[in-house]
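Write out the 3D structure for:
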Amino acid sequence: MASRKIKFERLLKKPIFRSVVWNVAGGVIHKCSLFIAITLAGRLLGQKSFGELGYVRSTINSFTSLAGFGTGSALTKFISEFQEKDAKSTASFLLFGLSFVSILALSIAIAIFFCASLIAGQVGKIELTSKLQIGCLLVIGISLTSALFGALAGFKEFLKTAIAQMVTGVIALPLILTATYYYHVEGAIVGLFLAAMIQNALMAWGLYSICRQRQLKLSFREMPKTARTMLCFSLPLVLSGLMIGPMNWLADSIFAKSEEGLAELGVYFAALQINLMIQTINLTLGQVLFPYCVENIAKGSKAFEAVNILLPWAIGLAVTLPVLIFPELLNLIWGDKFARDSLRIVGVFECVTAIIIASKQGIARDVIAKHRVWLSFLSSLVWGVTLIVFAFLLQDLGAIGRSSAAVSAYLVNTVIFIPIFIMQGVCNRRLVVCLPAMAIWSLLGLIVFLQLQFNISVPVRLLILLASASFIGLALKTIYKKFTLEKSAFIHN
């Protein structure tokens, strides 16, 4: 008992533990607040109007990947590498990154404003023009958030990001709901933008205090060298991002063209929120883990390697498993304005998609940390092409077709690229394709089959939930222990 207490006290003193706690706490408060705000806004708007909001956000996200230009990840990597040994380079990376994102995001926002009617016209929904024009503000807000967060993560100042997220989370909920109540879809967009800018202001103040504390002098003298380094690193990340955001938008556009397209997308975007919440929590966690992934290339800690791969997967499983087994929860959340049967089926597919994404987020960090970014681009390209093919094939199925296309694309991509990642040394086979991991995937496949084919009673599903949670927890623990103990045995020998 005493040894466990000592181990726990040692854990509390570790910087990575404190960083994870602060960042995850801030991220959970922020993302849960946004999730509640978006959900309640969806109940106010109804299925069709929520589809309009979702399509605007999808359109904006497709441009945000270009506006951000991978700057957040680049700032995290280069600031974490140079902050202790080269103050001039650190300041130069920070200045160039923030300046570049600001100018690029503003330029893209202006372009969207003047091209909004063309974008709305290509899906035959000209009423979306004004909403897209207002939505262009989100490009600026989201791009700056990514860059500022990346810079703070590079300095490992996660307390500042946590405070910014917590404060924003408290403000965002009433702000978005009030704006939606009075100004409908346009109000929801403005509310999201104002929430993003409040967070940006708080993080910018945090960066300013860091620069003063560390006496970083921002100068344009090192800019040419810095620009080349950052742009060479960011280019494949941008290309990968252009495969994700625009491809998702193109798939949404295929389904939006039908007469009831926006209403069907409303169902899809409603179910998608559970997926997005898991992704954002794991991405928040990832911003803490990424600097340590860079450091761990030299250290070779098996324990950290296992945590990096298994933790986001465990989070995804923990959140989605109750919804996967009880998809009626989505009907309770979104209310009677959303189609009940479609929402239930789409919810099952989105849970599977969320679990697949969560299982690969640790691998994605290792891909960037190990400078295999072009491999990431190739993976995104295959995923994007597969998504569009399935979207065309399933476009008559509405929301169910859209979610089916997404899960099919992720399944195909996983089957193709996990063996490639293993062969390239990006991830360890004993963490991703071992027997316990395959048992978890088999169990999930069985649950999905039972959900789609049979009407199982609530008591039986409750037993399935308890048994599945216990089995998955045991399997993940087995993977971790076996992987880390093999290392210990190797060192001993």
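Residues 1-244 form one domain.
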